[in-house]
Queue: 2 jobs
Job 1
Amino acid sequence: MATGTVPLQKPVEISYYLGRFSPRPNGSDVLNAPNQITCEKREPRPFAAPWPAPAERLATGKARRQQVPRSSHAEWKPPANRADPIDLLTQSNQTRLTHLVPIRYGRMLDSPFAFLRGAAIVMAADLATTPVTGFRAQLCGDAHLRNFGVYASPERHLLFDINDFDETLPGPWEWDLKRLATSFYVAGRRNGFRESDCEEAARSCGRFYRRRMREYRDMSVLDVWYSRVDAESALAIFRQSGRKDLARQLNRARQNNTLQALTRIATVVDGRFQLVEHPPILTHIHDDSLGESLRALFRGYLASLQDDRRQLVERYRFLDFALKVVGIGSVGTRCFVVLLDSSHHDDPLLLQVKQAQESVLEPYIGHSPYRNHGHRVVCGQRIMQAASDIFLGWASLGEHNCYFRILRDMKGAAEIERMSPDDFCDYAELCGWALARAHARSGDACLIAGYLGKAEAFDDALAQFAKAYADQTEQDYQALVAAVKSGRIVAETGV
């Protein structure tokens, strides 16, 4: 633990952070058989002791500056015993499909920013050596700028929020914010921006996080819980130069639905929909036993849903499935597209089934209390997002944990490469706002706001850290390039 840190605060009950189901010692909250899953409610217990008054918690946050000065967050110096980043990446491949791992490396070779996206395990190890206040929140665990975007709420409103939770776990709020700020610095360099522009984007991210957290500290618990960043609010942040492009992107997001996705990956054969192969990105698995396992997996998924949503999904029938390569950091994990059709016919639904592994944060802040990592991902997403996919659920495929979600539901991401430096800073503010809202839901806004204060001391420190870690990322990227050239690892580019 770095000088100036304090022990990570342990919550009175982990269920405070992780939802209404409490894990049981015998593992009964996970799928123990292909067609059986149990999710029992907590046993009745006395109410937890009330929190101190807001003023007292604000004072506690402010007092923590004495132990962990805000300026200390600027520090990044790799420790003498820093793990080899290539060894960490290799370690993370142990549970992946071996034939897809070269694609992962090939995509990471695209740029230092692509490397950062795929190397959450590396930054998690490094963040564990940096100062922390000890205040906890539910973390995204991989809060880079590409993991933010728009999507549809169940009421069909467009929201802006975090949209990836594979690494979610309760932990130090600083870690999410430092990864987010660093991603702006690295992506800004990739865009060819001046160093001052990259620094300002990282600082803007921290500034808006701090200011929004001050607003959340004065709101009631329910008002914080119901708060959201809608698409129109997102649009209003951008300067006039960027509003037209962003508005166009939001309109495209409204068209990103199952039917649109279906036209790209499916066709009609003998009167029924069927997924179209596009190796190695989308491939059928010709294994009868796997097909039956997926059907069993689907039964487990149904058992994880609340009753009304289970009735909805039960109106659909299983048509087809295929293995799909997704993202950068996720390449090599087992990810399937499942094609369903309703009782009305010609009414398709595409679900994504994705393998959930141990969070990269767990070696440093403790194991998840959920025996099924799909359960961990789903609960973390529900805690952090303003509104979540109604199809979220989890199950197990043999020894592999999985979670389900709808494939595309008016989802969209900003075109970072086309942004001006000013719009880039505006986007950093928007992401900082969304992250503050997510942390305020699960953590204590008074503690965090009290620590951050009114001045820009933390903002400046965050920008300095982002620059230093951007330099580190570029060095690690070059280590990957060298490892490929030497034959230490194999990469497949252009896929």
Note: The longest helix spans residues 457-486.
Job 2
Amino acid sequence: MEQFAAIDLGSNSFHLVVAREEEHALTVIDRERDMVRLAAGLDGKNLLTPEASERALECLARFGQRLRGLEPENVRIVGTNALRKANNSREFIARAEQALGFSIEIISGVEEARLVYLGAAQTLQGDRGRRMVVDIGGGSTEIIVGDKSDAVYLKSLYMGCVSSSERFFPGGEYDQFRMRSAILSAQLELESSTVVLQSLAAEDFVGTSGTARAINNVLRENGWSETGITREGLDKLVKKIIKAGKLEKLKISGLSEERRPVFAGGVAVMTAIFNALEIEFMRISDGSLREGVLHDLIGRVLYEDRRAITVLELMKRHHIDLEQGQRVRETTLALFKQVKREGLLKRERRLLGWAAQLHEIGLMIAHNQHHQHGGYVLANMDLPGFSRQEQGALSIMVRLQRRKYHPELIEDSAYVRSDALGLMTRLLRLAVLFNRGRMPIEMPDIQLEIEASEAMVLKISENWLVNHPLTAADLDQEVGTLAAAGHELRIVKT
């Protein structure tokens, strides 16, 4: 039986879960957690401090040992709000991938919300009607409304237990004014979404992840709730924190030492959610982001890839020419096959294929500069299933499919494997060029090689070029365009 693993690089904690798939069901066989507090390691310039980076890397080295022997396709590692905010996240990710031996994805807040809901939905028993799932993390809070396994509304808010604790309870000082300010600030963050969330009429309220579970444990241990989180129990907890006055005096049964420094901020955010959305009771789910990542990963490998569904939905919604997209995709992947030994990965083949299918998405705005329109659209819309790096790579490939080639866009992107992204982009340019006629043609026997000097050599039939003078002219122009950007393309006629 195959093993699958997911790692959630949260703003407060890092989580590892390993499972095996048995007859369409997951059996968890190992878990590991470490309170890294990555968000607390961001300085005033939103740079991860060396101390925070080292804490994280030590944890990931331990996780990496557990992952040894697993197939790369069976492992997915996602970073959330702290890594979204960190201005030096690219440097950290390069070191972290070396420690782990696997690639890391930074996901958007909306994608995080989708995966949180997926993880919670897999573990909830019984249908109690439309549900609202709340996940209070270290730096962000995700609120999702859905019916059974399908999310209908996803929201990611910039508030969490770490950020709230640092802002309103610095030095571990508690009083009524600080707590009231923390709650009101969270309610203000919620304000723009409150009407929509209330209109969705959720009947079942579910809390997931560390903050909700910690609050639930404390309420139960102190006899303030038999199960779940209640409004009355939250009120008693708020009074208990205020009465403690200081972090060192915050001794509450059921509250772990590692959770204690960020507990007040989490309670403030949860209280604000209860107040704004008029919640009386919230049950707790065992499933969260990491379980959602795991289910999504297994879907990619064994069943249905959410990213492929997203691409098809985009093509239909924006009336992209399906046949042209397929022609460019086939040509691109044929070229990819010839140069894959240059270090390109299996996952990059899929990414390149999706870029080919979406390369004309900018036509929905205008034909003039449609490559620029397409790049902008793909960079800024929500793409369920895609990480930020993948989305950025799609955007850049579509943006650079024609006209001037800008290598600086590739070098400055969040995609760590910039050399691979550059090569994929040049392959797409060639495929678009060959399919300019927008109709089925008999493609020539093309041989594509990459020399040690990184020059790209394209061997093609001279007779075919004579019969396709427009393509021959386009190829000559492409040689000059790439040369101006520092890349050599040679056309060898056979």
Note: The first strand starts at residue 3 and ends at 9.
